[in-house]
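Example record for the data management plan.
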Amino acid sequence: MKNIIRIENLIFEYSHLEEEPAIRAVDNVSLNIETGSFTAIIGKNGSGKSTLAKNLNGLLLPSGGTVYVKQWDTRDDAHIWDVRQTAGMVFQNPDNQLVSSIVEDDVAFGPENLGIEPKEIRERVDKALADVNMGKYKKKAPHLLSGGQKQRIAIAGVVAMKPECIIFDEPTAMLDPKGREEIMSIIDELHREGITVVLITHFMEEAVRADRIIIMDDAKVLLDGTPEEVFAQEETLREANLEIPMAASLAHKLRKRGIKVPEDVITVERLVEFVCQYK
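Corresponding structural encoding:
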């Protein structure tokens, strides 16, 4: 399978005052993101995960190393719009991404800036709003919507640009459990439709939905593998001050007691299925 994003020896440093040393937020990270994959990136605050995310579509540019989106180097000004049209981004706070006073105008903003014909913009807007179940709100003012609804509009604005990849930077962090599940269901559906998903999150229950999990710690990659492989490393995760999904932690304890629990028992649904076979 082809890689839509290639990260080669990426270094990113934040420089503040000249007399102070730069802060290295990403330290020599090399990764590939496969086309059509669903990758979750986890880490405690300050681990570098959000900085890494912003390097994936050129919002931040490397201090060292290189990031490629398809064939384009993110530092190549001539192709920055190719990069950002290919890899869209949804942020934690939707208010930072909404730009218009009417929902449908907000969703149309991206395609309009790409010079898309009005007829196609209308089609894109209608489809994007349908994809996030917000079609009936298209004439509403975004500031009258709930936090979860605003986030769905922000997602629709990115979807309307027809990206091949969407990077979600903690999109559910400001939402209640119901709103989080609604957003995650939309992300799951977008992935099923063929969009490559990169999800930055600190909710382990969200991460288990991915095909691959990358754990960031102290600006480096600590673990990289399938959810089953990563959550089997319970001691390593706890040393990094990260929680373990409840189902995975319980399965780990049962194994210590000699019960043969399959490695894929990392979700509540799979745990219930396993337990019910002993009825």
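Summary line stored alongside the record: Residues 217 and 231 are 15 Å apart (CA to CA).
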